[in-house]
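Entry 14. Structure prediction run on the chain below.
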Amino acid sequence: MKKITLTAAIIFAALSTFAQGWTMDKAHSRLGFNVTHLMVSNVDGKFKSFDVIVTSSKDDFSDAVIELSADISSINTDNDYRDNDLKSPHFFDAAQFPQLTFKSTSFTKIDAKNYKLQGNLTIHGVTKPVELDVVFNGTFQNPMNKKTVAGFRIKGTIKRKDFGVGTGTPTAVVSDEVEIDANVELDKG
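Output returned:
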């Protein structure tokens, strides 16, 4: 039994050594969303405070594990009245549910640039599986700091009512469908 435990510990340590950690470049990343208002116009917004951590041992990220967290109180739609309403118990209830989180369950390579990202999204205390489309824009060595950077574009649609957000607001006023549109730049190591 000790041999099995020791062997498992050595394998885990070896795998951990090869996995590369990537951290988000906050100055070049954006977590945005878009909803339809009164069935005729679009309103977009973003979370000003969020973080993404990616671990991958492969250059193409095909084994990536992705974790995201966002501060609900950082929501910004360029309208203070709307932002305060979104933070209130009518929608996100930032006082009771201060963060949204995402943890990947798979990151499947479709072709050279396109991936399907699946994971568990938690908003308003409700966790649901979601699937997002990802475009991998490649890697590049930053000429300023010599770090390797990677870029991604993430898109998808979720339903706010699935997460208990704004359930008292009719879909004719604010669409149930929320489009996610994010750009993430990561620094290696």
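Residues 2-18 form the longest helix (17 residues).
Filed with the rest of this week's runs.
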